[in-house]
Amino acid sequence: MTADPVQLRTRRIWALTVMFCVAVIVLTADAISKQQVLARLSGHPPVRLLHGLLTLDLTFNAGAAFGVGTSYTAIIALIVCGVIVYIVRTARRLRSLAWTIALGLLLGGAMGNLGDRLFRAPGPLRGQVVDWINLPHFPWTFNVADASVTCAAVMIAVLALAGIRIDGTSPAHAADRIDGTPSNPSTPSTPSTRSTPSVPSTPSAPSTPSAAPAPHEGAR
Predict the structure, then answer these.
(1) Is 131 a catalytic residue?
(2) How far apart are CA 158 and CA 99, in angstroms?
(3) Maximum distance among all alpha carbons in the chain?
(4) Quick one: pLDDT at residue 66?
(5) Is residue 146 flagged as an active site residue?
């Protein structure tokens, strides 16, 4: 059964719309929170909330998420650019809602931290990322973008372990079409019943030879 091209196009547009909406929400939340933290916490000691369950502590990170790789800021920025390009290219195959949300979270988080590296001091590709969230017994300070990337990584790992592909199919249905709708297998033809071999006819019993006629009483 051939998929409707209009339906495929509609699903693709819907998936891309959801992914970019999730990314925009993450990017907006990350930007606003960083702006508020810079305005209110610069030059102030950390603020403890919820009896120490959450601490607001302004720090600047030159590395990747959670302070990893502080000596490779420019390289990390270029890697993030490559990740963003890969996500956008891969999004054309999206048919799964879970994958759509996961890639939206990943895209929004990557763009949030990339904006810091491009536009903050000390310069393009060397900018320091604003981190401000600290949890008890957790050694690193992070931000909304880092949390979004982490959630995306967990979702992607769960989806991969569950065998759910980006197009909504699973390995058990590897032959399914890209829209996730399984094709209807053709019904195998029922083998024709073999004709019953004819029973060989029973050979007729040999005819009993007729008795010789009795000799007539005649002259000797």
Answers:
(1) yes
(2) 10
(3) 163
(4) 57
(5) yes
